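Anyone have tokens for MFS transporter? Sequence:
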Amino acid sequence: MSKARMPWKNVIGGSVGNLVEWYDWFVYSSFALYFAASFFPKGNPTAQLLNTLGIFAVGFFMRPIGGWLLGRYADRKGRKAALTMTVTLMSASALLIAIAPTYEAVGYFGAVVLLIARLLQGVSVGGEYAASATYLTEATPPGRRGLASSFQYVSMTGGQLIGLGLQIILQNTMSEEALTSWGWRIPFIIGALGAAVVFYLRRNLMETEAYDEEDSAGASKAERGTLRALFTHKKEFFLVIALTMGGTVAYYTYTTYLTTYLSNTAGLPKSTATLVSFCALFIFMCVQPAAGALSDRIGRRPLLITFGFGSMLGTVPLMYALSSVSGFWSALVLSLAGLLIITGYTSINAVVKAELFPTNIRALGVALPYAIANALFGGTAPYVALWFKDSGMEPGFYWYVAGCAAVSLVVYFTMRETRDAALTRGEQGGTPSQEVSARV
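Reply: yep, here.
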């Protein structure tokens, strides 16, 4: 196992975009309550909020398109170029929301600006994950890739925590009238500035050795990042969808939906539910590198299998227990139990996907099936949960999450170990990624 030093500049540059991306994603949904009235006619606050959240939902449908466009771009133009492109789209979308004119000033044109911003944000999110996963995997020496890839969820969770912390600060320092009038623009201005900083960091990154080898090998550039080339690896394409299915449903359940569940079902005060989510997510963020490093020692499959079993068998009793918590500490312990289970997936899912594909379609191979799985299963998880609740069958959602984990568990058992895939010609003792994917 390689003892090469961790290239921290690459890790930070490759992963920090996720922090800004998920910060922007979080503040839109959490501040929608304050800015919904700015873009639609007065009269029905519920209709205003529904219209605003409808624009939010458009972002999820754009993620597969972003995965396709930017995954292709990363395979044809390079990982660094794609990372720079995604952060440019991030900054543009946040800035558009920050300066969007109100309904009173320009009518529905403000809502159109909001929609364009969300379309850009959806494309950016769809491409950022794959560009980042591919870069972190290729720019890190063997034996350190699991640790490096874990920083994707460190940065993603960090973005949510920063957004949540800013929301708490603004709610406690500004009146609701000020927040509704102009204060809601502050988080988006901060997001645009943060993306500009990330753009500077990424401009100074080096291209990965694996991509440079592919670029200089004389292979046809016309086939790089194409759907035709990708579908010569159909098995790996559907493998990524299946292994993502259980993980993304569980992730959104214990992160995005958790606060709503603790408040609506368990009956905790919203302030307590928010604090539970904040503390649980902070601890979850801190354990990701440890789990990623563990996968470098024992392999990826043991962690994935542990997650699969834990989520399949533990979700139903955990959710039942969470539904009857009465205070902060019991809610925190149970929430942490769920988050620690899904750490087996979150800490390494990026590197596993990247190790399945050859260099010429690696970014697209990660991006497109992951974005499809996320749109179908991850982004819909809170809505599916609320549908079960409104139908009077809330426990059905617990079994839905457990069932998705069971499907993924079958995949984890049958897939090959990817830890030792060699991504460059200079890596000794590994198996070329192409051969690993062919045997899966």
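The CA atoms of residues 119 and 307 lie 33 Å apart.
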